[in-house]
Design a protein that fits this description.
Largest sheet of chain B: 2 strands, antiparallel
Number of domains of chain B: 1
CATH architecture of one domain in chain A: Alpha Horseshoe
Family (chain A): Belongs to the protein prenyltransferase subunit alpha family.
Protein name (chain A): Protein farnesyltransferase/geranylgeranyltransferase type-1 subunit alpha
Radius of gyration of chain B: 21 Å
Strand content of chain A: under 5%
CATH topology of one domain in chain A: Serine Threonine Protein Phosphatase 5, Tetratricopeptide repeat
Cofactor (chain A): Mg(2+)
Order of helices and strands of chain B: HHHHEHHEHHHHHEHHEHHHEEH
CATH topology of chain B: Glycosyltransferase
Number of strands of chain B: 6
Oligomer: heterodimer
GO molecular function (chain A): CAAX-protein geranylgeranyltransferase activity; protein farnesyltransferase activity
Structural class of chain B: mainly alpha
Helix content of chain A: 55-70%
Bound molecules: zinc ion
Helix content of chain B: 40-55%
Enzyme class (chain A): transferase
Distance between the termini of chain A: 74 Å
CATH architecture of chain B: Alpha/alpha barrel
Chain lengths: 314, 439
């Protein structure tokens, strides 16, 4: 159906409704040059909401307004309520959402709404994950989509039990193979492995597995902050300190031969490892970062140095 | 880059300057003429837009000179017309059914007050010199209390009353806005006491601590990706609750209630790494997927556009497998990004920069490099600032760029409170509203 040019005033289907015009004085703030179409449609929306009408025509009206302003928050809540009141088919509604989600992927409401519709569906619809893959193919770092996907993993218990095809780990790995700097994918990896409340289900060698995974990815791109952050995060989670990766980091750094320095993140991690027992080397690494390898953060590296000095003085 | 779309002066090698008169003209236009139809998608954030227009004009020192007392009185009436009978403010007039249509238990949910509408209304009233005496204080406090969820986070919408349906939640942005509202509306002088009187502070604190991710930044909610906008909201809450240490070098004898030194060190590491020389220029259209261009400037929350997703990086910029080695004779230009491995975006100069300032570590970024990014790269020749170099200005990015410059002491701008995002004069007014107890 073409919803773009509905004239409610001329449509006899709407003849019984008295529109409620928006009230605001002359000198209001942030006045927007609304289109006539939007002003008219929202006036009819206020009228059906005031009488709490749950009907087929109210559904159409909400769709019309969503197309003009997907950030209109009550229109989504109202639409979800119509679906529930009229017991409309939620799976059909998901199909309908596909176009608007792809046209407005960065809209906040559309994903919250999807979650509320999905909550009344008992099992994961077969098309859902391929739909999300399609959205992520347009923007692999879409924050709303990832937040929604986390909810989906928890709600339908999609925790990975293997790295096999169809698992969350397989999907994440394919994204990281495509772009190893996709920080959203790294974060999702951490979530599916460590975000579950029941810690006991984790295999014991999970830390080794993930440290190896991060190190392999770092080796393909030594200047990629996401992979280093992940490595450090796993080490912290393991609560064993970073000493065990000193040798690994030294592959990208040499204090004796500067021409061998290939990663500022390796220097940073080594400065952290050395801060306690080899503070001179730590300070040398921090100076290299300040002066040459990451001068935009010179103040931060000097601050780190001041922490080492303060610890020595204490 | 072409001279045409930037107001900065780069060719002569002179230090860039902020053209106060030009920016004042931009903001007066936003205040007094209709915003273009493109803003229709931000209709439900009208009071947010209003706040950013007013606070920017105030920071530029132009509010009183460019408006008459009668106009300001009209603006104040408009804001109060958005006040909800059950406490709080709507964030736009569009849900109001009008006087002829009674609110009933059945339709109340379709005309809620919003937590964004409420803070930005209170802030805008204070900027306009109103004494807030017409604010329904007790109803607002009851309404805020009802917004809190059992996990400590806050919803953003409810239609008043202690048992009204709460919509939205699990988002640190709403926590931040709810805390600001409590701090203003509560009668206790200190924010932490006012908030503690109204909501469950322990659970709120836990929600925020649980939202710190493995890389040290803070996410919208637990398990999500760290994000500078969320981090700003989270740290502002901790600041108002007196949970941040005041010493730059953390001492071993911390107040046990405060965040741990580890929390803070991981956070500072992440925040300082938001500064980046990775910029992109929208005029290099060949590196862009056209579809990505359109969505970006839209507000994506009810009333509070923080999370600004950006297009995936073009492949040419992904060839970033090198360290940036700078020669000392070339000044660095570096803005801030909102997430790891994303390019700089004007608004994050504020979200991340202000967070560092709140933590007492505003100098951990290279302020000059950031200033060059704003003034040389994203400042626009018609005034205002764009999201990226070469992008037309919008209200949110223009306001946040000014606020960031004000935090760093830009000449010609009033000094700003980084948490409330209003000038310190206005903040002083908020501290002195009549109901604040003098102890
Ligand atoms: Zn932005």
């Amino acid at each position: 159906m073409n919803l773009t040019k509905i004239n409610y005033e001329a449509d006899e289907k709407w003849a019984d409704v008295v529109p409620i015009l928006q009230q605001e004085g002359e000198n209001s703030l942030a006045q927007i040059a609304y289109t006539d179409e939007y002003s008219q449609a929202t006036s009819y929306l206020r009228a059906v909401m005031a009488s709490n009408e749950k009907s087929e025509r109210a559904m159409e009206l909400t769709e019309h307004i969503i197309n003009m302003n997907p950030a209109h928050y009550t229109v989504w809540l109202y639409r979800a309520d119509i679906i529930k009141t009229l017991s409309l088919n939620p799976v059909k509604e998901l199909d309908k959402l596909e176009a608007i989600s792809l046209n407005h992927p960065k809209n906040f409401q559309v994903w919250g709404y999807r979650q509320s519709i999905m909550s009344i569906i008992p099992t994961l619809p077969p098309k859902e994950l391929s739909f999300l893959a399609k959205v992520l193919a347009k923007d692999a770092k879409n924050y709303h989509v990832w937040a929604y996907r986390q909810w989906l993993v928890e709600y339908f218990s999609l925790w990975p039990t293997s790295e096999g095809k169809g698992s969350e780990l397989f999907f994440i790995d394919s994204l990281l193979t495509n772009d190893v700097r996709n920080n959203s994918a790294w974060n999702h990896r951490y979530f599916v492995l460590f975000g579950r409340n029941v810690e006991s289900v984790m295999p014991l060698d999970i830390f080794t597995q993930e440290i190896n995974y991060a190190m392999a990815k770092i080796d393909t791109a030594p200047q990629n902050a996401s992979a280093w952050n992940y490595l450090k995060g796993i080490l912290r989670k393991q609560k064993k300190g970073a000493k065990e990766v000193e040798h690994f980091a030294l592959q990208y750094v040499s204090l004796e031969d500067e021409s061998k320095i290939r990663s500022s993140h390796a220097l940073d991690l080594l400065a952290e490892i050395w801060a306690g027992e080899a503070s001179d080397k730590a300070c040398q690494a921090l100076d290299l970062l300040s002066n040459k390898y990451d001068p935009v953060r010179a103040n931060y590296w000097q601050y780190r140095k001041s922490l080492i000095k303060a610890a020595q003085a204490a | 880059m072409s001279q045409a779309s930037s107001a900065g002066d780069k060719t002569s090698g002179k230090a860039p300057t902020l053209n106060i008169a030009l920016h004042t003209r931009y903001w007066v236009r936003c205040l007094k003429t209709f915003l273009p139809t493109g803003y229709q998608e931000q209709d439900s954030s009208r009071l947010v837009l209003a706040f950013f227009i007013l606070t920017s004009l105030d920071l530029l020192g132009g509010l009183e000179t460019h408006t008459t007392p009668a106009e300001r009185a009209d603006y104040i009436s408009f804001i109060y017309s958005c006040q909800h009978p059950g406490g709080g403010f709507r964030s736009f007039p569009g849900t109001d059914f009008g006087l002829q249509h009674a609110t009933t238990p059945e339709n109340a949910r379709w005309d809620p007050a919003s937590v964004a509408g409420t803070y930005f209304a209170l802030g805008a009233l204070a900027i306009l010199g109103d004494d807030l005496s017409r604010v329904r204080r007790q109803e607002t406090l009851d309404w805020i209390r009802n917004l809190q969820h059992p996990d400590g986070s806050f919803g953003d919408l409810a239609a008043g009353g202690k048992n009204a349906t709460v919509d939205g939640g699990q988002d640190v942005r709403f926590c931040f806005l709810a805390v600001l509202v409590c701090a203003i509306v509560g009668e206790e002088q200190s924010a932490s006491e006012a908030v503690g009187k109204c909501v469950d502070v322990d659970r709120l604190k836990q929600f925020i601590l649980d939202s710190q991710t493995y890389d040290g930044g803070i996410a919208r909610k637990p398990n999500c990706e760290s994000h500078a906008g969320s981090t700003y909201c989270a740290i502002s809450v901790l600041k108002l609750l007196d949970l941040l240490p005041t010493d730059a070098i953390p001492s071993l004898a911390e107040n046990t209630n405060q965040v741990s030194p580890t929390f803070l060190q991981n956070l500072l590491h992440w925040l300082s790494h938001r500064q980046t020389t990775m910029l992109y220029d929208y005029r290099d259209t060949d590196i862009f997927d056209e579809e990505d261009d359109e969505e970006d400037h839209t507000s994506d929350t009810p009333g509070f556009a923080v999370i600004n997703a950006t297009p995936a990086l073009p492949p040419s910029l992904l060839a970033f497998e090198r360290m940036d080695l700078y020669s000392s004779d070339r000044p660095i230009t570096a803005g801030l990004n909102g997430r790891v491995n994303k390019p700089a975006d004007t608004c994050y100069s504020f979200w991340a920069g202000a967070t560092l300032a709140i933590l007492g570590h505003g100098n951990l970024i290279d302020r000059d490099a950031n200033r060059r990014y704003l003034l040389d790269k994203t400042q626009h020749r018609i005034g205002g600032f764009g999201k990226f170099p070469g992008v037309p200005p919008d209200i949110l990015h223009s306001a946040l760029a000014l606020a960031c410059l004000a935090i760093h002491g830009e000449p010609g701008l009033k000094s700003v409170d980084p948490v409330f995002c209003v000038s310190k004069e206005v903040k002083a007014r908020l501290d002195k509203v009549t109901w604040k107890r003098r102890d």
